[in-house]
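Task: sequence design from structure.
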């Protein structure tokens, strides 16, 4: 009887030690995480964007494409490069199914099945065109905004027109009609690949345009003739800076 009680006591002590070790380990992990994580990292807010991956409309066939401005986006056409009724022989905005892998890319679409396309047939330097969207979110004080977009450099050719020369891109973050910050050709993208463009802007208590609706603009700069550029996986975050 005494031996049984001693045995139980030993087992209970072992269990207590194990529980103590686990508790200490969890506590140390928590301390390390707290030390290495910025105080405001948990306050990063994902700002809603409509159709950020150009998944609407749904396309069934690989490399199938549309000749209409993607759902929830609007045409940015300051130089009139895109006609009112585009065809596959004119400049156009559209959506391309790049799943499981497009003939123009050596990788999958960064997000989902589709990518947004801006195809221009005019000569280099004729103007610019692209996609834009006004968001419901507004420009707030003491906030860091981070806009990220995956940019695609199509390889191969389309209708016997080479797509090998990259036309250049510009990604803009707006408040109302004013450009707050932009990324214009700061990243080099190999043919058939995608890379992420990042644009940041931080507001202060007295930053102009506070309260204006935020906007996103994705532009083909047409720095080469008959050029296509693709966009995907558009995301925007807001992070308070006064915490």
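Answer:
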């Amino acid at each position: 009887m005494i031996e049984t009680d001693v045995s139980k006591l030993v087992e209970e002590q072992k269990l207590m030690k194990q529980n103590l070790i686990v508790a200490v380990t969890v506590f140390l992990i928590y301390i390390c995480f707290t030390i290495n994580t910025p105080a405001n990292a948990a306050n990063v807010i994902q700002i809603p964007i409509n159709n950020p991956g150009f998944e609407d409309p749904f396309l069934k066939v690989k490399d199938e494409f549309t000749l209409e401005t993607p759902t929830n986006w609007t045409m940015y056409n300051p130089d009139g490069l895109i006609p009112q009724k585009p065809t596959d022989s004119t400049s156009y905005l559209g959506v391309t199914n790049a799943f499981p892998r497009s003939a123009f890319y050596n990788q999958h679409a960064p997000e989902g099945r589709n990518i947004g396309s801006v195809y221009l047939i005019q000569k280099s330097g004729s103007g610019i065109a692209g996609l834009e969207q006004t968001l419901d979110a507004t420009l707030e004080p003491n906030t860091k905004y981070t806009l990220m977009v995956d940019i695609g450099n199509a390889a191969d050719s389309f209708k016997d027109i080479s797509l090998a020369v990259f036309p250049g891109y510009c990604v803009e973050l707006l408040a109302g009609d004013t450009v707050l910050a932009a990324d214009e050709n700061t990243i080099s993208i190999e043919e058939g690949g995608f890379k992420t463009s990042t644009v940041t802007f931080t507001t202060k208590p007295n930053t102009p345009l506070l309260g204006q609706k935020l906007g996103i603009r994705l532009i083909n700069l047409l720095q080469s003739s008959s050029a296509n550029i693709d966009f995907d996986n558009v995301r925007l975050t807001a992070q308070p800076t006064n915490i």
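The chain has one helix and 13 strands.
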